[in-house]
Design goal:
By secondary structure, the protein is an alpha/beta fold. The protein has 12 helices and 12 strands. Bound molecules: 3-isopropylmalic acid and manganese (II) ion.
């Protein structure tokens, strides 16, 4: 038996997680395990009711689980950033989920905007660092009257740019990216292990030509890690160039490892080349702790409760979750179930079909239970 925590969250979150649970339960029936679900009431509704984002009780409760199944967070009644930082990022940080695993794979039957590419060409994984870089939240914003800090910046600005920031009315904001040796090593090692078990190629993404302190360290660590994996071919790619290669030669990638913020950006591009955000899952992984699996799209509040949201990214995230729990056959069947429903045209409106959210979940669950995939 597996015990899994579930957080539906906001907007379409609860609906799509409900479909994911159905499909995972069906996979359990078929492959001989059962799932005990524990739901957590975390999200905008509770925040608006009680002011609570993530409580000590939530954290200690969730820490009892190896896996969390997560829907989406974000609500039009709450200022952008509050729920994202206070819930989603807080979970990733608190549980030290240092790997953000995002497969970029074009399933059979899915349209990609890349005209000449097929499923053989688009099949790689992005390993995004998930706890450091520009996500650490160090920075501030201040006016000229805060003399002491301004002194530092005045010097910097006049030396580097010849700018005069004398006036008290001047306002400055800054935010710092942090990369540590240990933080890079653990995620880069993870990426090497994945590459070693796949087609043995690892691409490192950075911007070491400009942000040379943080990504200079990242590169040093990458080189050191590569010594432990002599069979894995490696390359460095600047983030601007990598966006070009994702579009031009996606077949050249096997595993891509990237600092946090660039990983955020390039995986939205990845989502598009694999058929859109409706088909893009992610896993926030702490190999020795509590991991969390989610669609990478948001809560789409305007579709809440209409029964038309596409549950496929969430169901696919469920496949990643099962894989993480060691249920590899079941994980594979879930992915095959998604593929079969696409080939059969059982898809939601965003993918050109007319099925509802629950139709898709029911259909995939049945296919799996009936051993038709
Ligand atoms: C993602 C999202 C989050 C991120 C936001 C909602 C905080 O864009 O999971 O990619 O930036 O990581
Ligand atoms: Mn993102």
């Amino acid at each position: 038996m597996h015990r899994i925590a579930a957080i539906g969250g906001d907007g379409i979150g609860p609906e799509i997680v409900a479909e994911g649970k159905k499909v995972l339960d069906a996979a359990g029936d078929r492959f001989g395990f059962s799932i005990e679900w524990t739901d957590f009431d975390i999200g905008a509704e509770r925040f608006l009711r009680s002011g609570e984002l993530l409580t000590e009780g939530d954290l200690s409760g969730l820490s009892q689980f190896k896996a969390i199944y997560f829907g989406a967070i974000g609500d039009e009644r709450v200022k952008p950033g509050i729920l994202e930082k206070g819930i989603l990022l807080a979970l990733r940080f608190n549980f030290d989920q240092y790997v953000n695993l995002r497969p970029i794979r074009l399933l059979n039957g899915v349209q990609t905007p890349l005209a000449s590419k097929s499923p053989e060409d688009i099949d790689f994984i992005v390993v995004r660092e998930n706890t450091e870089d520009f996500y650490v939240g160090i920075g501030s914003r201040f006016h000229g009257r805060e003399r002491k800090v301004l002194e530092v910046f005045r010097e910097l600005y006049s030396v580097k740019f010849g700018l005069d920031v004398e006036s008290d009315a001047e306002e400055i904001a800054y935010q710092i990216g942090v990369v540590t040796r240990e933080g890079s090593r653990r995620v880069i090692d993870y990426a090497f292990e994945r590459a070693n078990a796949r087609r043995k190629k690892l691409t490192s993404v950075d911007k070491a030509n400009v942000l040379s302190e943080v990504y200079g360290l990242w590169r040093d660590v990458f080189r050191e890690c590569s010594a432990g994996f002599p069979d894995v071919a490696t390359e460095f790619s600047y983030v601007d160039a990598v966006t070009m290669w994702f579009v031009k030669n996606p077949e050249s990638f096997d595993v891509v490892v990237t600092p946090n913020m660039f990983g955020d950006i390039i995986t939205d591009l990845g989502a598009m080349i694999q058929g859109g955000l409706g088909l893009a899952p992610g896993g926030n992984i702490n190999p020795r702790g509590t991991s969390m699996f989610e669609p990478i799209h948001g809560s789409a509040p305007k579709y809440r409760g209409l029964g038309i949201a596409n549950p496929m990214a969430t169901i696919w995230a469920g496949s990643l979750l099962l894989d993480h729990l060691g249920e590899h056959e079941a994980a594979d069947a879930v992915l095959k179930g998604i593929e079969a429903s696409i080939l059969d045209g059982v898809v939601t409106k965003d993918m050109g079909g007319c099925s509802g959210t629950a139709d898709v979940g029911d259909w995939i669950a049945r296919k799996i239970r009936d051993k038709e995939v």
